[in-house]
Amino acid sequence: AMRHLPYFCRGEVVKGFGRGSKELGIPTANFSEEVVESFPSDISTGIYYGWACVGNGDVHKMVLSIGWNPFYKNIKKSVETHIIHTYKEDFYGEILSIVITGYIRPEKNFDSLDALISAIQEDIEEAKRQLDLPEHLKLKEDNFFHLPAGKIGNHH
Ligand code: ADP
Ligand code: MG
């Protein structure tokens, strides 16, 4: 799962398929199918962490899931970023830039919504701790997050 890391990516935030992440208090900004297709095809599904910024806003900690997309009958992946920051408004249509720096765990099925939510809360705490370590913290300052507006595309 770590072979492709750190992984830099940017793209437009699109509407997801209404899993109700926001209602759980954990909104996830979804990348378009094109961006997802640009990921290495052998990247493991599961939960990752790293840094994210919306437009040319501040860089924040994030947790990210790479999963199977139910909208495409689980034959395509989805990539969803939960930024660990409270935004005043939605940012559909904006450019999200991320660097994925570490892996937490594989995808899991949960017996209850409560079990799912508490697993995600643990993922968030784990991400916060890991991202304070020098090897992950240094990527917050990467030039990738300070490119001039209009330079859209993948880093690699
Ligand atoms: P969708 O199914 O459309 O992805 P979600 O319930 O997952 O809906 O909500 C995602 C949207 O919430 C994002 O596209 C973004 O516009 C907004 N949003 C607000 N705060 C955050 C945040 N901290 N992290 C991610 N998305 C956020
Ligand atoms: Mg979402």
UniProtKB/TrEMBL annotation:
Domain annotation Riboflavin kinase: ranges: 2-132
Enzyme Commission designation:
2.7.1.26
List, alphabetically, the Gene3D superfamilies matched. Answer: Riboflavin kinase-like (2.40.30.30)
Q: Which UniProt keywords apply?
A: ATP-binding, Flavoprotein, FMN, Kinase, Metal-binding, Nucleotide-binding, Transferase, Zinc
Q: What catalytic activity is recorded? A: riboflavin + ATP = FMN + ADP + H(+)
Stored SMART domains: Flavokinase
Protein's UniProt keywords contain Metal-binding: yes
One cellular component term (GO) for this entry is: mitochondrion
Instruction: Kindly indicate whether the keyword Endoplasmic reticulum belongs to this entry.
Output: no
**A Pfam family per the record:** Flavokinase
Record's InterPro entries?
Answer: Riboflavin_kinase (IPR023468), Riboflavin_kinase_bac/euk (IPR015865), Riboflavin_kinase_dom_sf (IPR023465)
Associated pathway: Cofactor biosynthesis; FMN biosynthesis; FMN from riboflavin (ATP route): step 1/1
**Could you identify this protein by its name?**
Riboflavin kinase
| Organism (species) | Climacteris rufus
Query: Which gene specifies this protein's sequence?
Result: Rfk
